[in-house]
Write a structure and sequence with these properties.
It is built from 22 helices and 21 strands. The radius of gyration is 42 Å and the shape is elongated. It binds ligand C2E and calcium ion (2 copies).
């Protein structure tokens, strides 16, 4: 018999061991219950996951699949277990691909991720993303694979759409600039061929957009795109470059004349009008063309040079494709230099004003003056306003310059009035940038006040383009000036986008018929018809008419024949300095 304390100890030990065992037993039972519960939860979770889930052994036989899996293959779960992909897939090539992924997962002991287009038993294709991972036993040996596959068709579709949008223009469905650059870069790598880049800009699109509304503008762009798409072939790309500009590239070989053919076709696209709300709109475009390799090797250079050529086409109103020549780039450089000199010129007082008489041919009397800007540089050369005004408009200097012109003209009128001279209305040319300035009229009225000049001695000359931009605001602005008795005339009338339907709405006084219609008027019956129509139109709207650029006696006679009395041009006088005017034209007030 063991001593008591040992017995007690043994008993206590047994008791403790028993209770531990009991505790363990209870615990194990609980764990087993927990395990079963966890298993049930996991099973429920797996069957509710919308993805396909499976387990396979090392031989790629299915050990477990979820509901979604059996549904996707239209085979009951029990019939899948123990089978391989070769047994359950209709497409054996596809099964082989799955099998190879399994092998890869087992071999590399790493996750394998694939994205593939799968054609289901119903023949429908769907994108699937599959992840396979190896499963290990407690000795870290690979015993099989676990897989999860997800339908990513929606994501793929969204990705495709995003990719499409990144390379296409939403409105016209044409490739965009990025896409164009990518495509043309390939063509440029082919050494034997030439690649022409044609930049096409719609003329007066902004005016049309502003006057008819953006919806109509969009319709025009869609229609033009539709026409341009007909030019696309394996050598020709058409893309949208920016708002109203399109780019066409054409790859060709020296001996063929496909580029000429393309140009003819391109021009033909603008022969028929665009119909908007049952009305016909005749659109025109300017085309600039640069050809690789002569005009550049990169897409960027070709586009830049085509742009310069298009700009020339626009300002010269050409009706054909203008080819890039180095001179255009030189001109640009010259204009940039001019732009940089403008500020200094103002400081050095290199600007001055001259005044060209406007005459009544019937009475041979002075009816007005047009102020015209002159720039005599420090080295005594004259720079034409036709050259530097557009530069000043582009770099914003026109605001300072325009302000100086208003002040100088009004000060001059004050000087003449103070000298007791009879002063006719004097006109000032105002450019779009200047007119758009928020305080343009405030400044104008302030200067009128400062020099005590009655409004009816001032006339503002605006071009059609300026007037048609933001028509509602412009009308308000013009009314504001006319309430001060300032006259308004449309300069270069007939050359812009004449939306004649707006004419009655515009608070204006005079139409200045552009010199292009007047030059050789006596020899050009078409221009005679145009001029007569303008005169008729003006009479209907109670507007006065003046012809500008009358140089010869013949032109004068023909102008008079067209019922125009007011004349401006070299026939009567070139623009004069104040001293010359005072001597030849200005008389004392009666
Ligand atoms: P514009 O407003 O159409 O001015 C008329 C232009 O035609 C002037 O050229 C004038 O000298 C010229 N001209 C007048 N009669 C005849 C003629 O019989 N034959 C020919 N061949 N030309 C004639 P200019 O002064 O060189 O001005 C050119 C353009 O520069 C102007 O065209 C106008 O757009 C702009 N400009 C001139 N001065 C100003 C100004 O003060 N402000 C603004 N914003 N622009 C101005
Ligand atoms: Ca003018
Ligand atoms: Ca003019």
């Amino acid at each position: 018999m063991p001593p008591l304390h040992i017995s007690i100890s043994i008993t206590v030990f047994l008791l403790v061991a028993l209770s531990i065992t009991a505790f363990h037993l209870i615990n194990m039972k609980r764990k087993y219950r927990d395990l079963r519960q966890t298993h049930r939860h996991l099973h429920s979770l797996i069957s509710h996951i919308p993805d396909l889930i499976w387990l396979k052994d090392k031989q790629s036989r299915f050990l477990l699949v979820n509901k979604q899996f059996s549904r996707a293959f239209s085979i009951p779960e029990q019939q899948i277990l123990g089978k391989t992909d070769f047994d359950i897939c209709d497409d054996q090539t596809q099964a082989m691909a799955y099998y190879e992924d399994d092998l890869k997962t087992l071999r590399e002991k790493q996750m394998v991720r694939t994205e593939e287009l799968i054609t289901g038993s119903d023949g429908c294709a769907a994108w699937s993303e599959t992840i396979k991972v190896p499963i290990f036993d407690e000795h870290n040996q690979v015993v099989g694979t676990a897989g999860i596959a997800r339908d990513i068709s929606k994501r793929k579709k969204a990705e495709r759409q995003m990719l499409y949008l990144a390379y296409h223009d939403d409105l016209t469905d044409l490739p965009n600039r990025i896409s164009f650059t990518r495509q043309i870069s390939k063509a440029l790598q082919q050494p034997e061929s030439h690649v022409a880049v044609i930049l096409l800009g719609l003329n007066h699109f902004k005016t049309l957009n502003d006057s008819l509304g953006h919806a109509c503008g969009d319709q025009v762009l869609i229609e033009i795109s539709r026409r341009l798409k007909t030019l696309i072939d394996e050598h020709t790309i058409v893309a949208r470059y920016s708002g109203d500009e399109f780019i066409i590239s054409h790859q060709y070989y020296k001996q063929d004349n496909s580029l000429e053919r393309l140009q003819t076709l391109l021009l033909q696209q603008f022969e028929s009008p665009v119909i908007l709300e049952e009305l016909n709109y005749n659109l025109s475009a300017s085309f600039g063309i640069a050809v690789a390799p002569d005009d550049g090797h990169s897409c960027e250079t070709l586009l830049k040079n085509a742009d310069l050529a298009m700009y020339q086409s626009k300002i010269n109103k050409h009706k054909h494709c203008v080819y890039f020549v180095q001179e255009f780039a030189d001109q640009l450089l010259y204009k940039m230099k001019l732009g940089n000199q403008l500020h200094q010129a103002m400081k050095n007082q290199e600007f001055s004003l001259v005044y060209q008489p406007k005459m009544n041919s019937k009475t041979n009397t002075l009816v007005g003056l047009e102020s015209l800007l002159r720039w005599k540089t420090a080295d005594h050369s004259w720079i034409s306003p036709a050259d530097f005004i557009p530069v000043a408009e582009q770099n914003g200097f026109i605001i300072e310059l325009g302000g100086w012109i208003i002040k100088s003209v009004l000060r001059q009128i004050r000087i003449w009035l103070d000298q007791g001279l009879q002063v006719p209305p004097v006109s000032i040319n105002v450019s779009a940038v200047q007119l758009k300035q928020p305080h343009f009229t405030d400044y104008l009225f302030q200067q009128l006040q400062r020099y005590q000049i009655p409004g009816d001695l001032l006339e503002i000359e605006l071009t059609e383009g300026v007037l048609m931009e933001n028509i509602e605001e412009t009308i308000e602005l013009l009314n504001k000036m006319r309430r001060r008795a300032i006259r308004i005339s449309i300069d270069d009338f007939g050359t812009g986008y004449s939306s004649l339907s707006y004419l009655p709405q515009l608070p204006i006084d005079t139409l200045k018929i552009d010199r292009t219609f007047i030059t050789n008027l006596h020899l050009n019956s078409d221009n005679q018809k145009i001029v007569k129509t303008i005169v008729h139109l003006a009479a209907n709207f109670n507007l006065s008419v003046i012809a500008e650029g009358v140089e010869t006696k013949e032109e004068l006679e023909e102008t008079i024949n067209c019922q125009i009395d007011h004349i401006q041009g070299y026939f009567y006088s070139r623009p004069l300095t104040t001293a010359e005017l005072e001597e030849k034209y200005l008389t004392p007030r009666p």
